[in-house]
Amino acid sequence: MKNWETFILLLKSTSRGTFKKSHMAEKQAHPTEAPPFTLQDLRNAIPKHCFERSTWTSLRYTLVDVALVALLFAATKYINSPALPWFAPLLLWPLYWVCQGCIMTGCWVIAHECGHRAFSDNIGLGDAIGLFLHSSLLVPYHSWRISHAKHHANTNSMENDEVFIPYTRSEVGPFTPYEDIAPPKAFALRMVAIVKMLLFGWPVYLINHTTGKKYGKFTSHFVPSSPLFDDRQRYLVVISDIALVAVAGVLTMLGLRNGFGWLFCVYGVPYLIVNMWLVLITDLQHTDVRLPHFRGQEWTWLKGALCTIDRDYGFLNHVFHHIGDTHIAHHIFHRMPHYHAQEATRALIPVLGNYYTRTNVSPGLRGIWQALWDTTTNCVLVEDTGSAVYFKNK
């Protein structure tokens, strides 16, 4: 009981400090003016070898991740062993879920790198590995690769970005700010919002393009005729769908053979954890009171690419192949492989100056929780007008 009370007090203290932190963050807002450097200046600041893609290095990271997934899966047959104490499964299954979910997230990141053509000079090999890894995680590889490329081409454009476009005041409508709601209720509402996003955010985005560009008609990553794709790309959507059907078929056969309860334990829960990490990482990369979004001619590619944020995941930075703590470098040079991104980030920071935005909370997973709580509280909407707009909480 004491631990639970401590946890609640921590969350409440985080909530109370959030608004002060938000006001301070506004004073440190990312600039909206055109940067005093060019894309070529940034490229010149980075050692040339950072742009080199090594097929063997990428394969090594892939094989390590896949081997760890296989080893963890093989270990599950011992979890319910009668030789272990009765309570062992109560401890070992959650441990397996967390570890497997994190390693599988690393596999997801490698597939993401394949989609960016950062895996290898051999594009066909990268696509084959990306298709295998993403399909195994029930992700339509080519479909998402195409829409994700559009996101990189239009980052933080209110009209044309493909994901994480903020809701406007008119879209949100009348609402009561969290700070004006009784603390227990405000806490519950924020927790519901967080759980809903982490549990449903990824599949809902794939199915109906929630928070993406508004095309005026049904938009889905699974439908070849979706406005996300042009005529040259539709066959790739079909390939992605066929791969997903094949994986679903294999999972169904395994469930019929071994039981769907077993399937949920060895695959279903880690899959949900992958989705949780994916939504959490990508949301926090693009959501912060300091980051502006642009309308019309105020937006340029470089200004948009710079308006992301690097966040520290502690030891999980390595497990996630530094997708969180080197995200700005990735958005500027998306074909750079992840194993060079740290060095590139260190080289970029002096040139970027106040155009480099990093996490302003505690390091590691405690800071990630603080950032999630802060963005849920303060990043509610943007104004309907204005060429450069920041998130507001009221």
What layout of secondary structure does this protein have?
Layout: H1 2-27, H2 39-45, H3 55-75, H4 88-115, H5 123-136, H6 141-153, H7 169-172, H8 183-208, H9 234-258, H10 260-286, E1 293-294, H11 301-306, H12 316-319, H13 327-332, H14 341-352, H15 364-378, E2 388-389
Antiparallel strand pairs: 1-2
Structure characterization notes:
By secondary structure, the chain is mainly alpha-helical. The chain has 15 helices and 2 strands. It has helices spanning 2-27, 39-45, 55-75, 88-115, 123-136, 141-153, 169-172, 183-208, 234-258, 260-286, 301-306, 316-319, 327-332, 341-352, 364-378, and strands spanning 293-294, 388-389. A two-stranded antiparallel sheet has the order 1-2. Helix 1 (2-27) crosses helix 15, helix 8 crosses helix 10 and helix 9 packs antiparallel against helix 10. It is globular and about 65 Å long. The two termini are 35 Å apart.
Shape: globular
- Spans of at least 5 consecutive residues whose pLDDT stays below 50 are 1-27
Total beta-strand segments: 2
Strand order of the largest sheet: 1-2
Largest sheet: 2 strands, antiparallel
Q: Could you tell me how far the N terminus lies from the C terminus, measured between alpha carbons in angstroms?
A: 35 Å
Task: Give the C-alpha Rg.
Answer: 22 Å
- Percent of sequence in beta strands: under 5%
The H-and-E topology, N to C, reads as HHHHHHHHHHEHHHHHE
Q: Indicate the percent of residues in helices.
A: 55-70%
Kindly report the average pLDDT value: 93
- Please report the number of helical segments: 15
Structure class: mainly alpha
